[in-house]
């Protein structure tokens, strides 16, 4: 490939997205576990831990939660490293880098406030999701630019199409996040909306992964 930095970066982004999808799957399993045990999702902290233990799902929930967090952390840092590498070869990836840093910032603050102020944390997840949309759009833009320069017009066209699909899917996911924040007091609606948002995210990232897989094989 004429763009060695981008080639290395895209491979890292591809692996990061696989790890991100695995983390989302674990999040869905955890949400289903909570819903199936009839634990009130409006509670948090020690009260929530006691409720999960009483429902006999406390230990598996903690194990899945730790695994999900580890996958998310590795995914974030690998994605960041990949975009930094690729940004040396295309401006689209540079814009994606700034958007990713903003997404991480909102996500970290939301995680910190999750126990002390769940309402604010729910609202902070909305811009985090929207910045994720911006990251993927710019990464797809960068892939499209590189593909055209390499004469891979089929990949460039696919990247353009997927930008549209990604925008639709992740806007719906962000809307679901807003619904979760607004309906925080309604435990059943909150759980259902959270599962729907995660499912929409998986669909969007599977499409994104398809493009990344093709892009990492470009020569």
Characterise the protein shown here.
The protein is 85% helix and 0% strand. The longest helix is centred in the first third of the chain and has 33 residues, at 4-36. Mean pLDDT is 77; it is low at 40-45. The chain is mainly alpha-helical. It is elongated.
Tell me, what's the shape?
Answer: elongated
Contiguous helical run count: 7
Q: Structural class, please?
A: mainly alpha
Radius of gyration in whole Å, from Cα? Answer: 18 Å
In brief:
The chain is mainly α and 219 residues long. Helices cover 85% and strands 0% of the residues. Helix 1 runs antiparallel to helix 7 (187-216), helix 5 (118-149) runs parallel beside helix 7 (187-216) and helix 6 runs antiparallel to helix 7.
Give the tags.
219 residues, mainly alpha
SSE inventory with pairings:
Elements: H1 4-36, H2 45-54, H3 58-86, H4 91-113, H5 118-149, H6 153-182, H7 187-216
């Amino acid at each position: 490939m004429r763009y060695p930095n981008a080639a290395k970066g895209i491979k890292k982004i591809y692996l990061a997205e696989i790890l991100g999808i695995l983390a989302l799957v674990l999040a869905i399993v955890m949400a289903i576990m909570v819903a199936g045990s009839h634990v009130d999702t409006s509670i948090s902290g020690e009260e929530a831990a006691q409720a999960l233990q009483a429902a006999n799902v406390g230990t598996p929930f903690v194990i899945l939660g730790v695994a999900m967090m580890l996958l998310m952390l590795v995914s974030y840092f690998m994605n960041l490293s990949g975009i930094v590498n690729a940004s040396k070869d295309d401006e689209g990836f540079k814009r994606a880098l700034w958007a990713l840093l903003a997404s991480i910032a909102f996500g970290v603050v939301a995680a910190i406030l999750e126990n002390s102020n769940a309402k604010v944390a729910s609202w902070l997840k909305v811009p985090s999701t929207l910045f994720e949309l911006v990251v993927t759009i710019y990464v797809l833009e960068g892939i499209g630019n590189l593909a055209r320069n390499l004469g891979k017009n089929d990949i460039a066209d696919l990247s353009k199409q997927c930008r549209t699909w990604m925008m639709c899917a992740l806007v719906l996911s962000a809307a679901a996040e807003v619904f979760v924040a607004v309906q925080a007091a309604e435990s059943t609606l909150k759980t259902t909306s959270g599962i729907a948002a995660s499912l929409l995210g998986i669909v969007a990232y599977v499409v994104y992964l398809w493009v990344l897989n093709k892009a990492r094989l470009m020569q």
